[in-house]
Amino acid sequence: MPTTIEERIIRPARNVMGSLRLPGDKSISHRYALLGGFAEGTSRFSNFSTGADCASTLACMEALGAKVHTPENGVVEVTGVGGRVVPRTMPLDCGNSGSTMRMIAGLLAAQQGSFTLIGDPSLSRRPMERIRQPLEAMGARLALTGGHAPIHLEGATLKPIDYSTPVPSAQVKTCVLLAGLQTPGETTVREAVRTRDHSELALRAFGARLTRNLNSVAIAGPQPLHAIEAAVPGDISSAAFFMCAAALFPGSGLVFDSLGLNPTRAALLDVLTELGARISVVQLEEKHAELVGMVQVAGSAEGLRSASIAGPLAAQLIDELPVLAALGPCTSGGIRIRDAKELRVKESDRIALVAKNLRAMGAEVEEFDDGLDVPGGQTLHGTEIDSAGDHRIAMAFSVAALRAEGETLIRGAESAAISFPEFFDLLDRVAER
User: Fold this and answer.
1) Active site residue 120
2) Does 222 sit behind a cis peptide bond, omega within 30 degrees of 0 on the bond before it?
């Protein structure tokens, strides 16, 4: 089968071995770019994410007056606007990045002026009503198009609110906190399911004061931010694909150096351990309140067992669910996923695409409104995979293809660059054939 830049052939592997140092965590890089661009002074970030999404955040902050310099590979220097963005007449292009659009809206809500946020067709289908409600409650004005982007935002002098998020979302929480950072009084965000806390940790690193309780976080404004120098830890959501690949092969072994191990993100390690993978964490240390360590992953001689993912765990693993589901046929007892309806409004309907592509590989799968049942003990066959331009689908099925019989063609493989441009090169490096 001939391939183009949009396609990639994955051949079966006999093992996965090696060591990897992954690009910087995407979630942390987004937040460092936003806060560095808003702070006073020049911040310097090493191992900044190489993904296109984080480049969109940097470009938006640059359009708002920040100065961005990349002196060497993986290093980004950002000189901030000192709390006051430059008025912008042209739309801010967020590309494919929902993180950029939702979080920067909170930053702009307290700024004087009008702003328009646009994105690519995929981003323009994603729900934005969830940020309009709290920002308008604070006094900003947002106009959406059928609940979606483009977003037309009128900044204003805001008032603090006490807000409970109806859907677990670190992006919405961050949006409200960034608005609260600039608002006189105390703004509180409450969440029934605790979401990743990179924003709270990053805000503190930049000098802000927050109060964190079990199910809420409060910020008193206005507060200034000050530049920092930081190394971004390796992205555990990117590592997830390689960890799952290692788990597929008895006798495999992968080592991940300087990997981010934030407790709100590290539930993947527990699930892989439950499935039977052997995982150890060494050299654990704290950097700018983020935990970083070396992780060793090896496949079990007995193979993979089964796992059930639901409730708060599904929210914590929302980015990793596609690749975990893709492992299902190769387990003994299958993978069950529930309470993951949010997967239907990501870059694609990930529940539907996982089911479609597993069936294309010859597997049985049962699809539910909020998840999937993927029985174990099945054999996968090489086929053509439709990623629908979704980076996590393309990467998840590249991992599943390592255990398939015959070659697998990944269509839309270029979408991996959204979060992880180096993915296919690294996969080739560690896959033994």
Assistant:
1) no
2) yes
